[in-house]
């Protein structure tokens, strides 16, 4: 009797793809005996949270081609968050389009809608759903009226051997009832609870041979969902969002769950075999992608062109004067995040400003990434004057006796003779004493929000936008940057 | 939101990532955050530092997982 096991041609791909695949080969030898002629098989290559890792695409394309030479009907699937994390893509004239063009070139079949798909804003994302030659799926999303997003709740793919694969997708919704993105990015959308909606879509099971959920919910949420669904009601959940590296079989309540970390470091090859009785046999292998190894030259050429993104050297504003120290650059940055976020006040830690000079004249996008290279996101808090004072007192020691850059207010640090801090006095930007009982909206970066320990009630809300992106947005609006020469917002008194 | 790092409660902003929880955990213990960390979830899967978190998630710094 023949066995369901790896085909001889796969060995060629194994040699091409390296040792990670060899591991898969050894696992596949454990399969139980089944008559091969009666089985119908389908292979899926799944990635998630690519976050515009353009540089890994030439290598990934080579792997996809190699696998397709063995499995011509291979389905290529993304678990969402294709966008955000690479200025070459995020600052492209058509924001987010490079990764979509690369996904088209590799002939992706479907992608979940991840929270970062919304980062291209309403119009941008709508355009992306039209440019994509694959289907965007999300079943717990209701599209805004009078828009033309190409997003489906599910898709049934029939492959040449007659197998029908059902793909349905659900995305995570946070405490505010939206995905983890800036609220402005999802205006007009409504979102349903993914757990309740998933149960409603179980009716699809009879419409095909293999039932696959492509979720952007995080691994733990996928486990919770699997435990809430009837046992074995879904064959496979391809996950994303938590950047989890699932390198060994995870089966919960009879449902296999996979995830391949992020940024195309890995991809999961899933092999499904369906018996005439409808039993689905599953195996998964985590393959290493990365950048090293054979790659596809035509895709490399495309990536090189995207990396020469003219938008990065485009003038976004003009500085009317030279910036000649960290304070001047820091005050520009902190003003930018305050205005861009609409908060009353903004703070940046002293280590958050990485250049001390900015020449008069053209300011380019790449200058902002040099000022603020960390990819820090901004977080908004509701803090009283007393809580802000607590923050300043706590931060001074952690920041090696340097004051915080601030916008929307000024401060006076009262130092002891040994240089340690006695107290901090807060003032409005007009120099009047602060109302210490008033509640202010305050933005800071996520580094500050996690590292500073001080008494405060509100634990903060991430705005899912980086401080660099906020600065770029602000400078584009501002156009002419006024002089910051000699600006002083902090007085140090011994 | 509350995240559990090595079974210890850490209060962190909503929308925080694994790295934020790690920094908050070490700051709470008045320790410097190590330059390199290996973090796993409650199912012993490795997770990236920029992975997204949800209220109540449990994460562990490898080799420091509580024996409870």
Structure description:
The complex is a heterodimer of chains A (494) and B (68). Chain A folds into two domains: 8-307, 4-Layer Sandwich (Purple Acid Phosphatase, chain A, domain 2), CATH 3.60.21; 314-493, 5'-Nucleotidase, C-terminal domain (5'-nucleotidase,  domain 2, Alpha-Beta Complex). Helix content of chain A is 29%, strand content 26%. The longest helix of chain A is centred in the C-terminal third of the chain and has 16 residues, at 326-341. The termini of chain A are far apart. The model of chain A is unreliable at 1-6 and 19-31 (pLDDT under 50). Chain B has one domain: Phosphatidylinositol 3-kinase Catalytic Subunit, Chain A, domain 1 (Ubiquitin-like (UB roll)). Chain B is built from one helix and five strands; from the N terminus they run E-E-H-E-E-E. The radius of gyration of chain B is 11 Å and the shape is globular. The mean pLDDT of chain B is 91. A five-stranded mixed β-sheet of chain B has the order 2-1-5-3-4, covered by helices on one side. Classes of the chains: A alpha/beta (494), B alpha+beta (68). At the A-B interface, helix 8, strand 12, strand 20, helix 13 and strand 25 of A face helix 1 and strand 4 of B. Strand 12 (244-245) of chain A pairs antiparallel with strand 4 of chain B.
Provide the descriptors you would attach to this structure in a database record.
heterodimer; A: 494 residues; alpha/beta; Purple Acid Phosphatase, chain A, domain 2; 5'-nucleotidase,  domain 2; seven-stranded mixed β-sheet; six-stranded mixed β-sheet; 27 strands; disordered N terminus; B: 68 residues; alpha+beta; Ubiquitin-like (UB roll); five-stranded mixed β-sheet; 1 helix; 5 strands; globular
């Amino acid at each position: 009797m023949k066995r369901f096991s790896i085909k001889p041609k796969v060995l060629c791909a194994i040699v091409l793809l390296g040792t990670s695949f060899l591991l898969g080969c050894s696992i596949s030898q454990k399969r139980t005996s089944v008559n091969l002629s009666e089985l119908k098989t389908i292979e899926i290559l799944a990635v998630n949270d690519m976050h515009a890792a353009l540089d890994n695409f030439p290598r990934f394309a080579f792997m996809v081609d190699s696998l397709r030479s063995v499995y011509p009907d291979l389905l290529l699937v993304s678990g969402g968050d294709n966008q955000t994390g690479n200025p070459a893509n995020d600052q492209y004239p058509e924001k987010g389009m490079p990764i979509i063009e690369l996904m088209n070139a590799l002939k992706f079949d479907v992608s979940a809608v991840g929270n970062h798909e919304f980062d291209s804003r309403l119009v941008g994302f709508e355009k992306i759903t039209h440019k994509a030659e694959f289907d965007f799926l999300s079943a717990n999303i209701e599209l805004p009226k009078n828009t033309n997003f190409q997003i489906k709740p599910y898709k049934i793919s029939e492959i040449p051997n007659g197998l029908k694969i059902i793909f349905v997708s659900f995305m995570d919704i946070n405490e505010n009832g939206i995905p983890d993105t800036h609220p402005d990015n999802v205006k007009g959308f409504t979102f349903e609870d993914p757990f309740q909606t998933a149960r409603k879509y179980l009716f699809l099971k009879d419409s095909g041979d293999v039932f696959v959920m492509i979720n952007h919910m995080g691994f733990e949420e996928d486990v919770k969902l699997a435990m809430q669904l009837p046992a074995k009601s879904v064959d496979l959940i391809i996950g994303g969002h938590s950047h989890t590296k699932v390198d060994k079989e995870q089966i919960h309540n009879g449902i296999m769950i996979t995830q391949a970390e992020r940024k195309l470091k890995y991809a999961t090859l899933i092999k499904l075999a369906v018996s005439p009785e409808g039993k689905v046999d599953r195996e998964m292998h985590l393959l290493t992608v990365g950048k090293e190894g054979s790659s596809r030259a035509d895709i490399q050429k495309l990536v090189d062109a995207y990396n020469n993104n003219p938008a990065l050297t485009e003038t976004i504003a003009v500085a009317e004067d030279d910036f000649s120290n960290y304070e001047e650059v820091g005050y520009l940055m902190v003003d930018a995040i305050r205005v861009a976020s609409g908060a009353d006040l903004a703070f940046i830690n002293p280590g958050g400003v990485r250049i001390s000079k900015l020449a008069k004249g053209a300011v380019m996008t790449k200058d902002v990434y040099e000022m603020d290279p960390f990819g820090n996101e901004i977080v908004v808090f509701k803090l009283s004057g007393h809580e802000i004072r607590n923050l300043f007192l706590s931060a001074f020691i952690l920041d090696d006796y340097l004051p915080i850059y601030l916008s929307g207010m000024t401060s006076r640090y009262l130092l002891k003779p040994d240089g340690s801090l006695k107290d901090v006095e807060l003032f409005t930007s007009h120099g009047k004493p602060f109302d210490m009982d008033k509640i202010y909206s305050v933005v800071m970066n996520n580094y500050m929000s996690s590292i500073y320990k001080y008494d405060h009630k509100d634990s903060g809300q991430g705005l899912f936008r980086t401080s660099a992106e906020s600065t770029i947005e602000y400078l584009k609006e501002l156009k002419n940057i006024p002089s910051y020469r000699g600006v002083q917002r902090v007085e140090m008194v011994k | 939101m509350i995240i559990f790092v090595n079974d210890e409660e850490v209060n962190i902003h909503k929308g925080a990532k694994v790295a934020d929880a790690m920094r908050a955990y070490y700051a709470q213990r008045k320790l410097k955050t190590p330059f390199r960390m290996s973090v796993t979830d409650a199912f012993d899967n490795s997770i990236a530092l920029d992975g997204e978190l949800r209220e109540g998630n449990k994460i562990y710094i490898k080799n420091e997982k509580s024996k409870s």
